[in-house]
Amino acid sequence: MTDVTIAPEGNFITLKAGERTARFHAIWLRDNAWDEATRAPANGQRLIALRDIPAETRVSAAKADGQRLTLTFAPENKTVEYDVDWLMQSRYDRPQETGAGWTGEGIETWDSGLMARVPQGDFTAVQSDAGAKRDWLAQVARYGFGKLTGGPIENGALFKVVDLFGHVRETNYGRHFEVRTEVNPTNLAFTGLGLQAHTDNPYRDPVPTLQILYCLESSAAGGENMVVDGFRVAERLRSENPEWFDVLAGHCARFEYAGEAGVRLQSRRPMIELAPDGALIGVRFNNRSAAAITDVPFDKMETYYAAYRRMGEIIDDPAMEVTFRLEPGESFIVDNTRVLHARKGYSGTGKRWFQGCYADKDGLLSTLAALEAPMAEAAE
Predict the structure, then answer these.
(1) Where is the TauD/TfdA-like domain (predicted)?
(2) pLDDT of residue 183
């Protein structure tokens, strides 16, 4: 049963649909009208600006009929129909998250316990079957990383992974980069040394939000890949010492890279990044690329370094890591705003050849949403 009442001044309505109740302001409802005069039918984009809606907009009449809500707005005398389920899914009159460091409903943080169920998909299935692609992308979105097995063993195969959901983001490293031992490397990633778990390119603003690593040869001993959930790291730090969490979230670190002629990349961002409402939206951690920290007041610098040290200790804790080995034709994708990745050291014998590239998360999330839309429509 659906019921609607108008506030005495008409500035909001109260909508009840089954056990759900929510209030909606008149100006919000008018701004979110889906009639053809307000939104383009082909793409849903607004055809009017807020300046075209009277500031004194009020609801003058309302009628609820099942899943349809009909409202009339004054002073325009404009009548608009709404889908009740859409309104309830979009409601903002609900308990809000409080405190700093909360994560959204679609995110699941993890530690080494995820090793028994590493998110993965089969390349051929993901490439050819929309359902398999949807399921794999959903895992990447939830956990921040995912493997693909059974891919082609050929130069540039990583581009076929990106083609599944988006586009390559080209950087000063080119469209892709080689990851194997080099003489006089421009970056420590190109040696056989082990690397501490880190996020890539923290010196960029914005950072590439996805990284893809693709294995072409893997006969060297060692070199296992490792991932750590930066969001779980932040949650653990907050539970241990809220002051340390706050100092890393409340002050900017600085990062820089100048390893090539004509390149001097710099950024200024916190290691733990929060949205204005406290949502955890990003982690930047890369000791190799950290510049001098100059944005922390003198009286907080010792606290900052204590927090920085402890964050590194949590990242290094084996209880936080998921480790796996990639064989030729296998790859993995990682959310570079959330999940830190690392590599165990490997020997100088045998061969180890990976190729890597960057892409952006908006393409992945867009592809996932488009694949999920028919499923949601079928459930209605």
Answers:
(1) 120-358
(2) 39
